[in-house]
TrEMBL record:
Signal sequence bounds: 1-28
Higher taxonomy: Bacteria, Bacillati, Actinomycetota, Actinomycetes, Kitasatosporales
CDD domains documented for this protein: GH32_FFase (cd08996)
Name the record gives this protein: beta-fructofuranosidase
UniProt entry keywords in alphabetical sequence: Disulfide bond, Glycosidase, Hydrolase, Signal
Organism: Streptomyces hirsutus
Family (UniProt): Belongs to the glycosyl hydrolase 32 family.
Length: 977
């Protein structure tokens, strides 16, 4: 349970009475009035380069922490700077940028204090754990000491000051926020004579709060942090939240109090000193060059300029332009605080970034998130957007909303500006009948909308359950609820479930359908067939190993009279053979093609997301059709060929051996490969991509003619021990006795299309610079290469930038710690020193912990099930059990760098993994968990101790919640005898 702090909040009030929004002037004290004095600290952020910023009063420099100061997957780069109000400004990226300052100077808070700063926010944080998005703070909220200036939800300005007994907060008026995408000057002051906190926005008073009679108490032992909260919430064990995102300029801390007249005068003087006496427009655009040199970031696939992306959705064509929207967290590469990103294209393959289309807003249907939806053109009114609005205040937190473009007013076909209607479009009332049960009201999302013959149709993803009161007593399966209307605004009439799966008989589609899509299936030459495809993503309430891995579909007929979908086959079919293609969305293009967009999950850990600064990207849009044999046709859209550059290979009618010789000089990580091969008795045909010459790293695409199976083998795709690997595939019949293969390779992205009937989407993360080779082989028979063409690919946004950062090779003349990754399935090589918490039963192959999600330990060739040491053993006391486990004693060799995977509870004194020098028992390095079960890689550079005898000790002296630690893959370079 979180410890609650006593937070005394008085918003826009004087003496407990609410002041009208015009705000009365603050009363001046009759005696002891304090005046402003010279600053004790001033950061003007004038630097153009470097990872420090200068504090002008003392002349000292303070470090600017930033994810790419020492980057993991790209060359290091400096924190981002842009033009400020006057001079330069520092860009805070929302999750990694923070200045750790030496202090506010010689500030005597008892005589009053004033903080003023220019900010231009890009996005507002949700207010995770109820904490403000901090601009600057030096406070201890538990002790109710120190100060904080920051933003609450939707940009509301707040100032906190601690008095020991109280932490007093003044809030600015909700209708006077620090607006996004413009410069705002904020001043916060403490007036001891008036016993008052005051907030000023652009020189105007926007809030006051009364303070106690006693003097404030500084939090002198805390650092001054600019851009991050002193007590941030750690999300997913990796991300510090409660951080600012946007530009900041000229942060000043001064002794004394600021009255309203002085605030107005000072602000007027600031404006008068600016060129043209106007505040400039801030440059908050995201520069994609931030990721230059990233060896894994795709170049010709659609992806956001930075941070988190979920499924692309709502594709729509209007006035010669294609628009795509996508789930986006602008504050970091993690899930949450979902907005709608927006990009535009003239061909669906070259993209241009546009401003965020939808953002959570207090007066909207989605104050807690704008989730997936769709778009459709409403006659001459331009497209309308249907979205899932999240509102945690409601008993059923999801409903669908509508947003309209400002096109009719501004005529801008980029459609950069959207307005959300305040009223919901559809909601999930209790007891909504659905087939064998009731619609699962708590799961009501992802509207898919189209118009046909004057009727608007809306599908909403949900499930079918039985209720007893408010409790779900049975789950029947997933469904798409169908509504109709004459206008997009409604009213919408519920027509029942379009289709559903019987969970007992057909469990694959899950308990709830997400992202339902219904599209017509054209035949050859685009002819109408009368058939439709229904696509869905399965969702389960609890953890399921198949979650976020699959997309299923049925081919069938849409019965518009009965509002039902009639499938041609009872069992759903898997759309893609990999485990990365999810989140379908689709539309019909002006030329009659049914096109599907998707998200390609990158399946990286939270730590890898944090280190890379981005997460996920869109797949190549694909066209779907009905083949003459009644099966689904799948191929990348024809426009993908526009991305082709130089042709690297052109092979016709050759043996596999000859083709392979001609491929010897072909290499790259941005390629389009097209091949037609006749097996001619060959048992397997294999195309190796991202391959080193010695096979150290390679990814294999192969077709087994006996099994009629196409698959990808990523067992050797990467030397990175934390990269997910494995083998995936499915059944494919040859087409006229031929194997037709199309492969799109884009850094970590790999999409393969087989016989125009099936796709396989995957991710590969090689570590070596030379893992760019291409190789074709076959086993048995005399396979004949009818044609094989290879093109270099150009970028979707700009000229592709070459990767420029690779992992250095690890020492090769060393041994490993015995059973370093618990691959034996027990504690062989380890000794239980004491206690009961560590035993053979703790060595587990489990990929998930049962109440949340995956550990993300990677499998190896030696241990394909991925054994690891899970410190939580429910059969031996769980969190309450304690003990000590020790490895064999070895001599540290090689480069002296030790790394390991660690997760579990956060208690550095009682719960840790340590490197211990055997001769004297000295702990050389240690690490605890972070209150999360997902593993993260920790590295110790112990080069100074090469030659020392050491051992690894895992200690659990903690009981109660999170009283366990998990360890895996302990890599120690062991000196050979």
């Amino acid at each position: 349970m979180r410890r609650r702090t006593a937070l005394r909040v008085v918003s826009a009030a004087v003496g407990g009475a609410v002041v009208p929004l015009s705000f009365a002037p603050a009363p001046a004290a009759a005696h002891g009035h304090t005046t402003l004095r010279s600053p004790t600290a001033h950061w003007d952020f004038e630097e153009h380069t470097g990872a420090v910023t200068r504090e002008a009063v003392s002349g000292s420099t303070d470090p600017v922490d930033y994810v790419f100061n020492d980057a993991r997957y790209k060359p290091g780069s400096d924190p981002v700077r842009r033009r400020g109000v006057l001079g330069r400004a520092l860009y805070f990226d929302g999750y990694s940028t923070v200045v750790t300052a030496k202090g506010p100077g010689k500030l005597d808070v008892t005589g009053g204090m004033t903080i003023d700063v220019w900010i231009a926010p890009y996005a507002y944080e949700h207010g995770i754990d109820g904490k403000p998005q901090s601009l600057v703070n030096q406070h201890d909220p538990d002790a109710r000491t120190g100060f904080l200036l920051g933003l609450r939800r939707f940009g509301q300005i707040v100032f906190q000051l601690g008095f020991g007994s109280d932490l007093v907060e003044v809030k600015g008026a909700p209708d006077q926020p620090a607006a996004k995408n413009r410069w705002t000057h904020i001043a916060a002051t403490y007036d001891p004579a008036a016993h008052q906190l005051r907030l000023y926005r652009d020189g105007l008073l926007i809030g006051t709060a009364a303070t106690p009679d006693q003097a404030p108490v500084p939090a002198s032992s805390e650092p001054v942090l600019i851009g991050r909260h002193n007590r941030p919430t750690l999300l997913n064990g990796e991300f510090h939240t409660n951080m600012y995102m946007g530009l900041m300029d000229s942060l000043v801390i001064r002794p004394g109090a600021l009255d309203e007249a002085t605030a107005r005068k000072e602000h007027a003087a600031k404006i008068a000193a600016l060129p043209g006496h106007r505040v400039p427009r801030p440059d908050l655009t995201h520069d994609r060059a931030r990721f230059d040199g990233d060896r894994h970031r795709p170049q010709f696939h659609m992806l956001p300029p930075w941070h988190w992306m979920n499924e692309p959705h709502a594709p729509v064509h209007f006035k010669g332009k294609y628009h795509i929207f996508y789930q986006h967290d602008p504050l970091g590469p993690f899930w949450g605080q979902i907005h709608w990103g927006h990009a535009v294209s003239t061909d669906m393959v070259h993209w241009r970034d546009l401003p965020i289309a939808l953002a959570p807003a207090a007066d909207s249907v989605g104050p807690d998130g704008c989730w997936s939806g769709s778009a459709h053109v409403d006659g001459d009114r331009a497209p309308v957007l249907f979205f899932t609005g999240g509102d945690d205040r409601l008993p059923y937190r999801q409903r669908t909303g509508l947003a309209v473009s400002t096109y009719q007013g501004d005529g801008d076909t980029d459609l950069p500006t959207w307005t959300m209607r305040p009223e919901p479009v559809t909601e999930a009332p209790a007891d909504l009948p659905a087939g064998p049960g009731t619609a699962w009201a708590e799961n009501f999302r992802d509207p898919f909308v189209w118009e046909e013959d004057g009727i608007w149709y809306q599908l909403v993803g949900s499930g079918i359950v039985d209720y007893e009161g408010t409790q779900v007593t049975r789950k029947h399966g997933g469904t798409a609820l169908l509504y109709t209307a004459r206008r997009p605004e409604g009213p919408w009439t519920y027509q029942g479930p379009l289709h559903w799966n019987d969970l007992a008989a057909v469990p694959e589609p899950g308990e709830v359908w997400e992202l339902p899509v219904l599209l017509p299936l054209p035949g050859p030459q685009g002819r109408r067939t009368g058939k439709h495809i229904l696509l869905i993503c399965p969702w389960w309430e609890g953890f399921n190993p198949n979650a976020v891995k699959h997309t299923y579909y049925w081919i069938g007929t849409f019965d518009k009279r009965r509002y039902r979908f009639v499938p041609d086959h009872e069992k759903p079919r898997e759309f893609d053979f990999g485990e990365h293609f999810t989140g379908p969305s689709g539309f019909v293009t002006p030329d009659g093609r049914s096109v599907i967009f998707s998200i390609t999950q990158d399946r990286r850990t939270e730590q890898q997301h944090a280190q890379s600064g981005w997460a996920h990207n869109a797949g190549m849009p694909v066209s779907v059709s009905l083949r003459p044999d009644g099966t689904l046709g799948v191929e990348p859209i024809a426009e993908a060929a526009k991305l082709r550059g130089k042709k690297l290979a052109h092979i016709r009618h050759a043996s596999v051996e000859e083709a392979n010789r001609r491929l010897a000089g072909v290499s790259g990580d941005l390629m389009d490969i097209s091949a037609v091969i006749e097996p001619c008795g060959a048992q397997t045909i294999t195309l190796a991509v991202r391959a080193c010459a010695d096979g150290t790293e390679e990814t294999l695409l192969s077709y087994d003619t006996a099994e009629h199976r196409f698959q990808i083998d990523r067992s050797r795709s990467s030397l990175d021990p934390d990269v997910r690997k494995g083998v995936h595939g499915g059944s494919v019949e040859l087409d006229g006795g031929r194997l037709t293969l199309r492969v799109l390779l884009d850094r970590s992205m790999l999409e393969a299309y087989v016989n125009d009937s099936n796709s396989l989407t995957s991710r590969v993360y090689p570590t070596r610079k030379d893992a760019t080779g291409l190789r074709l082989t076959s086993e048995g028979g005399s396979a004949h290469v009818v044609s094989l063409d290879v093109w270099r690919m150009n970028g979707a946004y700009d000229t592709p930038v070459a990767p420029a950062a690779y992992d250095p090779p690890r020492p090769g003349d060393v041994d490993s710690l015995p059973n370093h990754d618990f691959a034996t399935g027990d504690l062989t090589g380890w000794t239980v020193v004491s206690g009961t918490t560590f035993s053979d039963a703790n060595v587990s192959p489990r990929n998930d912990w049962g109440w949340g999600g995956p550990f993300y330990q990677a499998e190896t060739a030696e241990d394909p099930t991925g054994h690891h040491l899970w410190g939580f053993n429910p059969e031996a006391g769980g969190d309450d059990a304690t003990g000590v486990l020790r490895s064999a004693t070895v001599v540290l060799g090689g480069d002296g760098v030790i790394d390991l995977l660690v997760s579990g509870g956060n208690d550095p004194d009682q719960l840790y993994a340590a490197v211990v020098r055997a001769d004297d028992g000295k702990v050389l390095a240690k690490v605890t968990g972070r209150g999360a079960e997902q593993y993260r890689r920790v590295v110790f550079d112990l080069a100074a101790h090469i030659g020392d005898r050491i051992y690894i000790e895992i200690v659990d002296r903690s009981s109660g919640g999170w009283g366990h630690i998990n360890v895996d893959d302990v890599n120690v370079p062991v000196q050979r005898p």
